[in-house]
Amino acid sequence: MASTAGQQSMGSHAPKLAELTDKVLFDDVWQRPGLSQRDRSVITVSALIAMNRVEQLPFHLQRARDNGVTRDEIAELITHLAFYSGWPTAASAINVFKQLEETSCP
């Protein structure tokens, strides 16, 4: 199934960026056979946390959960990154993760 995440989030303001997001990033790069979807989610969430890109975290944390990364694994990932990307990045990520968990169904 073709991705529409880019179109939904930015299509009305940046149609070409939305197209590249859907067709190149999600329909090509994310589908390459070299890594599993789960591994790509772990890498993406880690990179977003390390770079303190919290605006993108809710989408990718949910995607990670959908790709089989458990709640406990995400908490461990954030804890581990605190020592590499800094305490503030981990604290910010935990706040985003808590908000996501609070709004998700059990």
TrEMBL record:
Pfam families documented for this protein: CMD (PF02627)
Listed GO MF terms: peroxiredoxin activity
Residue ranges of domain Carboxymuconolactone decarboxylase-like in the record: 15-98
Protein name: Carboxymuconolactone decarboxylase family protein
Organism: Duganella vulcania
